[in-house]
């Protein structure tokens, strides 16, 4: 799986190992290598094999070779989880094209290449497979100041639905998992217990834990999800259901600032 040195990626890698899978782990750069090795150690603690490889998904010519190399070392590829991603936040009128391209390249272009490489191997092997993309609640609803991120996540959700149609004949399922606010390094809450953070706008009243996303990914990767495809599993504590409720209860224009 891509982007598995910390946060949702790390929790998912460990959950898949606990479910009996060997795991390929990727990290972006040297600053994240230690985290990736930590993930690998946890995978191995479950008695599974872990392969660690550096992969920047925006270096497009490196994506397929990296996935092929890990698959060969692991002895096959049955489940592919696309988790690598980023987000450049700026209002539309201020966003540079470089910011736009950076986000779309990582969150959509790189995802396409990784998913395509994995799908080709699955089809060639003839044993079916699972493709799972980590999108976001912003696959479904936009956020002020996140035009590039929203566009990329909408696009990834659409890609997964399309390949669910195309690859079903090969016994391959394709689904999205769409997290809300999760306590990870990306949200600046790496070391916080989400149960101790109050979020009045979320029905469950708190952010989520990375393990709560990992549990849904592990289900979708399991035999129990054999008839689930083309779906987007929102895991957000009920946040998206607050649309009209939040709208009618806003008392200031602060939301316009993101």
Q: What fraction, in percent, of the residue positions are helical?
A: 40-55%
> Which structural class should the secondary elements be placed in?
alpha/beta
The radius of gyration is: 18 Å
Number of strands: 6
Instruction: Please count the helical segments.
Output: 7
CATH class: Alpha Beta
List segments where confidence is low: pLDDT < 50 over at least 5 consecutive residues: none
Q: N- to C-terminal separation?
A: 31 Å
Biggest sheet descriptor: 4 strands, parallel
Description:
There is one protein chain. This protein has seven helices and six strands; from the N terminus they run αβαβαβαβαβαβα. The chain has a single domain (7-257), classed as Rossmann fold. It has 258 residues and is an alpha/beta fold. Strand 1 (23-27), helix 2 (33-45) and strand 2 form a beta-alpha-beta unit. It has helices spanning 7-18, 33-45, 60-74, 97-125, 147-167, 210-220, 243-249, and strands at 23-27, 50-54, 79-82, 129-134, 172-179, 232-235. It is globular, with a radius of gyration of 18 Å. Strands 3-4-5-6 form a four-stranded parallel β-sheet, sandwiched between helices. The protein has a two-stranded parallel sheet with strand order 1-2. Helix 3 runs parallel beside helix 4 and helix 4 packs parallel to helix 5 (147-167). It starts with 6 loop residues before the first helix and ends in a 9-residue tail after the last helix. Helices cover 42% and strands 12% of the residues.
Tags for this model:
Rossmann fold; four-stranded parallel beta sheet; two-stranded parallel sheet; alpha/beta; 258 residues
């Amino acid at each position: 799986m891509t982007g598995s040195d910390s946060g949702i990626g790390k929790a998912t890698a460990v959950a898949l190992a606990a479910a009996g899978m060997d795991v390929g782990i990727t990290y972006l750069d040297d600053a994240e290598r230690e985290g990736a090795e930590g993930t690998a150690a946890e995978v191995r603690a479950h008695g599974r094999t872990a392969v660690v490889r550096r992969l920047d998904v925006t270096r497009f010519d490196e994506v397929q070779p990296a996935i092929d190399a890990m698959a060969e070392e692991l002895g096959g590829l049955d489940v592919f989880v696309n988790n690598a991603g980023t987000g450049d936040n700026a209002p539309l009128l201020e966003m540079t094209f470089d910011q736009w391209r950076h986000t779309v390249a990582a969150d959509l272009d790189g995802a396409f290449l990784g998913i395509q490489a994995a799908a080709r191997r699955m089809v060639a092997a003839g044993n079916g497979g699972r493709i799972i993309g980590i999108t976001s609640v912003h696959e479904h609803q936009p956020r002020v100041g996140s035009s590039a991120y929203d566009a990329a996540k909408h696009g990834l959700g659409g890609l997964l639905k399309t390949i669910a149609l195309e690859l079903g004949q090969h016994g391959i399922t394709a689904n999205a998992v769409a997290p809300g606010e999760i306590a990870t390094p990306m949200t600046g809450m790496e070391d916080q217990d989400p149960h101790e953070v109050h979020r009045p706008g979320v029905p469950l009243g708190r952010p989520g834990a990375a393990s709560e996303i990992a549990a849904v990914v592990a289900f979708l990767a399991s035999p129990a999800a054999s008839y689930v495809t083309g779906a987007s599993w929102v895991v957000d504590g009920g946040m998206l259901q607050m649309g009209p409720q939040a709208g009618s209860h806003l008392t200031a224009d602060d939301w316009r600032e993101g």
